[in-house]
Amino acid sequence: MLVVRQGGSALTVAARVPIRLVLATLAVAASLAVLYSVLRGDPGRTGTFFYDPSASRLFVAPMGSIPPIRGVDGPEEDAVRAVVVSVTGNPEDRQSRRIAYLERYSPELKRQLEAARTEGGRAPMGRSEAASHRWVRRTNDTDWVPLASETGERIVSDWAVPGPGGISPVVCIP
User: Fold this and answer.
1) Rg for the chain (alpha carbons), in Å?
2) CA nearest 64: which of 77, 50, 78, 84?
3) If you placed Cys at 82, which of 23, 31, 49, 138 could pair as Cys (CB 3.0 to 4.6 Å)?
4) d(CA 117, CA 108)
5) Pairwise pLDDT comparison (62 vs 164), residue with the higher score
6) pLDDT(28) > 50
7) Quick one: which of 126, 127, 81 has its CA closest to 104?
8) How far is CA 134 from CA 44, 53, 60, 96, 130, in A?
9) Residue 58 has what pLDDT?
10) Mode of pairing for the β-strands spanning 80-86 and 57-62
């Protein structure tokens, strides 16, 4: 086993790699759970957060909305799903809410999901292929990246790191 000395403590390379892998796996699993609940519908939850970049405004849209959707300031479909977190660990604390990242689907995936919903079937695109048609970015980024990329996985997992005082952010729902 390779041992690296850093700052007086021994860190094993083998111990650091699995932690990143576990965080990335958890982030992808959480994203898939959100997608599943959107497609399936959750009777206890009627809405989800969306962000309209042209209006710089967060709003609540019906749970089954497939991004991008029509925004709050016009007919253009530019509003995207927003994953909102509370940095204090308290989802009821509205002042602590921040947008962790934004998510949208490719036009092809959106068409397939909407057709599957209308026809009562399944989208022909498989899960692994669909992951490359789901794009994410932070609010201050300009470029969208595939969720199924190293950068995409980092975007959907970076928000989960504990902040000052060791408090872990939590996802907020409307």
Assistant:
1) 18
2) 50
3) 49
4) 14
5) 62
6) no
7) 81
8) 25, 18, 20, 27, 6
9) 96
10) unpaired
Give the pair of three-digit tokens for residue 59.
């709003």
Average pLDDT over residues 104-133: 89
Residues 6+ apart with CB under 8 A from 48: 38, 60, 61, 62, 63, 65, 81, 173, 174
**Mean pLDDT, to the nearest integer, of 29-40?**
47
Determine if residue 113 is left, alpha or beta; phi over 0 gives left, psi from -120 to 50 gives alpha, anything else beta. alpha
In one-letter notation, the amino acid at residue 109 is L
Q: Name the DSSP letter for residue 79.
A: B
Return the residue matching tokens 């057709």: 115
The mean pLDDT of the chain is 82
Q: Which residues contact 156 (CB under 8 A, 6 or more apart)?
A: 27, 28, 30, 31, 83, 100, 101, 136, 147
Q: How far apart are CA 115 and CA 126, in angstroms?
A: 15
1, 30, 88, 134, 149 from 128: Cα distances, Å: 34, 15, 34, 10, 12
Q: Are the C-beta atoms of residues 52 and 59 closer than 8 Å to each other?
A: yes
Asked whether the whole model's pTM tops 0.90, one would answer: no
How far apart CA 174 and CA 172 sit, in angstroms, is 7
